């Protein structure tokens, strides 16, 4: 049930955000720019001579609703996590600990006992015919005697 309420509040949040963007862009700025300049006074035709007051009140009401909806979403999601017995801090600490553990293992280069390191591409594993000399590294493709 709480999942449905959270989803519905998220839907309202998106709708409110889109409406806020539209209403703010419809307002006439001090320099006369914005959508008010593009529409050629269409807001005055729709809302009448006091279009500025209506748009200002609508902006205030939508912004208050947006703020309250955001706060309620935070509380609902916090309660949903608490209901599952999961703390946000604990889940972050577990994630960080697992990331640090994986990073430490990679830094140490730990290998299973008896395992050998992988050979470099193009390297030969056969000993040189002349004795104890190490094999010469293979040249990279495309770099011939530069």
Detail the topology: elements first, then pairings:
Blueprint: H1 2-26, H2 35-39, H3 42-47, H4 51-83, H5 88-108
Helix pairs in contact: 1-4
Give a verbal description of the structure.
- This protein has 146 residues and is mainly alpha-helical.
- The protein is built from five helices and no strands.
- Helix 1 (2-26) runs antiparallel to helix 4.
- The N and C termini lie far apart (70 Å).
Features:
146 residues, mainly alpha
Distance between the termini: 70 Å
Instruction: Based on Cα principal axes, name the global outline.
Output: elongated
Number of strands: 0
SSE pattern, N- to C-terminal: HHHHH
Brief summary:
The chain is mainly alpha-helical and 146 residues long. It has a domain at 16-26 and 38-80. Helix content is 62%, strand content 0%.
